């Protein structure tokens, strides 16, 4: 038979036996409840509370004055180790506030006891090799020392040792 005719016959039998039609409620959207996060707890500071007087500029100026006192007697590296502040911060502070640190010994040569005598002997050897007609490079090779040391000794003892031959490097090729 026809399915729609069968359905109508079943509905009629249901209502005839006393059945009632119940309309169910459909789906309704309800959003999720709002999340409840706990309140953040403030971080506790370790150690004693800092004593802060004045505003930020006044504290920075006081710190710069303290660093300037150290700068009068120390190098930047030494002040950095004592104060626990990076060297870059100290240099920036010095530049902003117009003070400078004690200069460190430049280069690797730091005078030691007995250096004067050794330097004088080397200067005599340099003069002798210069008089033989050797170039600076040949002098460095024969003394087994570096160019910087030879240049330092030439300046220190006022040795007349030109870095090039008079008349230029191509003198022999033009003749």
From TrEMBL:
What protein does this entry describe?
Helix-turn-helix domain-containing protein
Q: Which organism is it from?
A: Pseudomonas promysalinigenes
Tell me the lineage of the source organism. Answer: Bacteria, Pseudomonadati, Pseudomonadota, Gammaproteobacteria, Pseudomonadales
Residue segments, region Disordered: 29-62, 100-119
Q: Which domain of life is it from?
A: Bacteria
């Amino acid at each position: 038979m026809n399915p729609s005719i069968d359905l109508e016959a079943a509905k009629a039998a249901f209502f005839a036996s006393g059945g009632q039609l119940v309309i169910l409620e459909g789906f309704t959207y309800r959003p999720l409840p709002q999340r409840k996060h706990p309140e953040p707890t403030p971080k506790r500071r370790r150690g004693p509370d800092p004593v802060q007087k004045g505003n930020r500029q006044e504290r920075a100026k006081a710190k710069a004055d303290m660093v300037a006192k150290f700068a009068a007697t120390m190098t930047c590296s030494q002040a950095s180790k004592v104060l626990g502040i990076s060297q870059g911060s100290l240099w920036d502070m010095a530049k902003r506030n117009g003070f400078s640190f004690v200069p460190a010994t430049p280069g690797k040569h730091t005078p030691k006891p007995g250096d004067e005598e050794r330097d004088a002997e080397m200067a005599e050897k340099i003069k002798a090799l210069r008089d033989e007609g050797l170039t600076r490079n040949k002098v460095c090779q024969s003394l087994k020392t570096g160019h910087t040391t030879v240049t330092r000794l030439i300046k220190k003892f006022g040795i007349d040792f030109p870095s090039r031959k008079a008349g230029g490097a191509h003198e022999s090729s033009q003749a």
